[in-house]
Amino acid sequence: MTTMDPLLFGDNQFFGVNHMSEEKARAQAMRFQDLSAVIDVLDIAYDEGIRTFMCTTHDRIAAVADHVRADPGRYPDYKFFPGMPYAHKYANAMTELGMMGAIRRFLPDGGLFDAALRGGKALAKKDIDGLVTLLVDAEMTMFRGTSTPVIFLQNVVVDLLLGLGFDEAFRIYAQHVRDAYDAEPGFITMNLPALLDALEKQGVENPVVCSNINKIGFRMCGGVDAYQDALRNRSFRAIAMSVFASGAIPAREAVGWVCEQPNIESIVFGASSRANIVSTRDLVAEFWPERMPPPAS
Amino acid sequence: MVKIGVVGLGKMGLSHVSLVRPLPEADVVAVCDSSGYILSILERYTGVRTYSDFDEMLRGEDLDAVIIATPSRFHAPAVRSALDAGLHVFCEKPFCLDPAESRELAVLARSKDLVTQVGYHYRFVGAFQEMKSLLDAGVIGDVSHVLAEAYGPVVLAPKGGTWRSKSTEGGGCLYDYAAHPLDLLTWCLGKPHGVSGTVLNRVFSRETDDEVFSTLYYGDGQTAQLSVNWSDESQRKMTTRLTAWGTKGRIFADRQECQVYLRDTSEPPDGYQVGWNVRYTTDLTRPVQFYVRGEEYSAQLETFLRRIEDGVTSPRNDFPSAADTDEVLGMLVADAANGPATTSETAAVARAVEATAPAPWPAVKAASRELAAAAAHRAGQVKQRIDEARRRRKA
Question: For A120, left (φ over 0), alpha (ψ -120 to 50), or beta?
Answer without folding.
Answer: left
